[in-house]
Amino acid sequence: MTHFLLIRHGETDWNVEGRWQGQADLPLNQRGRQQAIDIAHTLRCTNIHAIYSSDLQRAWQTARELARIQKLPVQQDPRLREIHQGEWQGLLIADIRSRYKHEFQRRSDNPLQVAPPGGETALEVQERVLSAVSDIVIKHPDETIAIVSHGFVIAVARAYYMKKPIEEVWGLVPENGTIIELDVHSLP
Q1: What is the mean pLDDT of residues 29-52?
Q2: Residue 54 buriedness (CB in 10 A; 0-12 / 13-18 / 19+)
Q3: Which CATH class is domain 2-184?
Q4: How far is CA 62 from CA 17, 30, 31, 135, 181, in A?
Q5: In the predicted structure, residue 37 carries a pLDDT above the cut 80
Q6: Could you give the 3-state DSSP secondary structure of residue 7?
Q7: Active-site choice (9, 11, 84, 120)
Q8: Whether pLDDT at 159 is above 90
Q9: Per residue in 137-146, pLDDT tens?
Q10: Is 84 an annotated catalytic residue?
């Protein structure tokens, strides 16, 4: 069994503004940098064997603080990137709901099959995330591994391993700076 610490990156300005970031590569804001320090402090006595991170800077900036305390390198993996929001990246959620009302509702009802224009479906995200998790489990059986990633990535992993319907994914998205523990007993 591999014990995962799934960590959502610290806050960015777009989180505060209510903009969908997707794969836009934004840095942490001041509060996000403090959240990264707080995460590292919280986990300072935890015996972590490896740290993996999305290659988007808000995730690796968060991971870097943990790596400094744990004295471990950060292994970046693009499969741990946030869902690609296509034309919705950078837009306020309220604007998406009004400009793309029909598409937004279709996606909310069927996240597995419906993507934002030019973006990814939940199924596509889940496939790449589970591929990354499987590789990590093979490489680190019976170890504690930190993965610093994004809200939707963590939510689809949780949905899969908790055997929740993917339609419940939106309710599984953690807040910025949150640590979620997840044990993976076998490969997907």
Answers
A1: 99
A2: buried
A3: alpha beta
A4: 20, 12, 11, 22, 17
A5: yes
A6: strand
A7: 9
A8: yes
A9: 999 999 999 9
A10: no
Take residue 89 and report the two structure tokens written for it. Answer: 């990246």
CA distance 57 to 26: 6
pLDDT at 187: 56
CA neighbor of 148 nearest in space, from 93, 96, 70: 70
CA atoms of 182 and 67, how far apart (whole Å):
20
Residue from 3, 11, 65, 82 carrying the catalytic annotation: 82
Separation of alpha carbons 73 and 66, rounded Å: 10
Q: Is 175 considered catalytic here?
A: no
Domain ranges of the chain: 2-184
SS3 of 15-70: the string is HHHCECCCCCCCCCCHHHHHHHHHHHHHCCCCCCCEEEECCCHHHHHHHHHHHHHH
Confidence label for 112 from pLDDT (cuts 50, 70 and 90): confident
- The SS3 of residue 180 is strand
